[in-house]
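Progress note, sequence design subtask.
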């Protein structure tokens, strides 16, 4: 096992928890709590995405010579999540509970599918292909 990969997987769970808090607050119509939960979710996701995009993905691409494969898919999905978060911020600012709930539902599905692909496909590939993986991921929180 890799401690760095374990940290990335823990980050996924932290993001799931933040998303659940956002969902609960939005469905209750608690706009202040929803705003705080959205900010927490965005920070958690950006921390995870930055660790993957700046460290893990380049290390995988260098080790395998594959730049257009799974890491390209994961980057595109990160961008999709960022766009959904921007939409969620907009719906929250308008206090449109129905639109916000729909955006959150889409986020839930996309993140679940995304995390399954990373955890069951990309991370195992990184464990076998990336030399000194824990060094590459050292210091991520």
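Output:
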């Amino acid at each position: 096992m890799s401690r760095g990969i374990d940290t990335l997987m823990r980050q996924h769970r932290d993001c799931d928890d933040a998303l659940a808090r956002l969902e609960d607050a939005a469905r209750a119509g608690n706009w202040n709590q929803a705003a705080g939960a959205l900010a927490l979710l965005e920070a958690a996701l950006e921390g995870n995405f930055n660790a993957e995009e700046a460290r893990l993905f380049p290390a995988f691409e260098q080790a395998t010579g594959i730049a257009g494969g799974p890491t390209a898919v994961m980057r595109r999905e990160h961008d999709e999540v960022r766009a959904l978060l921007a939409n969620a911020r907009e719906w929250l600012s308008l206090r449109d509970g129905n639109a916000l709930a729909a955006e959150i539902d889409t986020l839930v599905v996309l993140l679940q599918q995304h995390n399954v692909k990373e955890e069951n496909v990309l991370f195992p590939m990184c464990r076998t292909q990336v030399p000194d993986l824990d060094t590459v991921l050292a210091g991520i929180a």
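The chain has five helices and no strands. Work on this subtask will continue into the next period as scheduled.
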